[in-house]
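Summarise this fold before class:
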Amino acid sequence: MRRILKRGAAATALALSFIGGNEGLKTEAYLDIVGVPTVCFGETRGVEIGDSYTPAECRAMFADRLAGFEAGLDRLIAGPVEALIPARSYVGILDWAYNVGLGAAARSTLIRKLNAGDLRGACDELPRWRFAGGKGVRGLLIRRNKARQLCHEGLDGVPAEVPFRWGGA
């Protein structure tokens, strides 16, 4: 497997599996729950109804977009903080950013908590992002709870009563 994420092959494999599994593969363009033309693994950029791709084209498009979302997410997270987020936690947060978009992520309490060094609090923000078109969506809640669980798994070994702080801060 070619490495996509700068965090290495294991993080790449986890991200492709987790995020790709959450998005699902659809090779023919369709309108998503809020009416946005979507194809492959949740791709919306430049998509028009009638577009179609092979599974291989979809995988390549997904890998490129995922790397772009990693770079965008890393720009939102304070420099020293980004490098210290455990891989499993990062993939849970990347899944959310990929699904909601970097613009929404930039304005979020989740990113503010990350940048304040509160990774547990950031993980706990994920289930709040369960709405589409102003309505609660059961599938989004399920997805966010899975992302929250993955995010917290990255913190195994860090005592729950001690806030996660970066670089001993």
Summary: Strands lie at 26-31, 37-40, 131-132, 135-136. Helices lie at 9-23, 55-76, 79-84, 87-100, 102-106, 109-115, 119-125, 138-153.
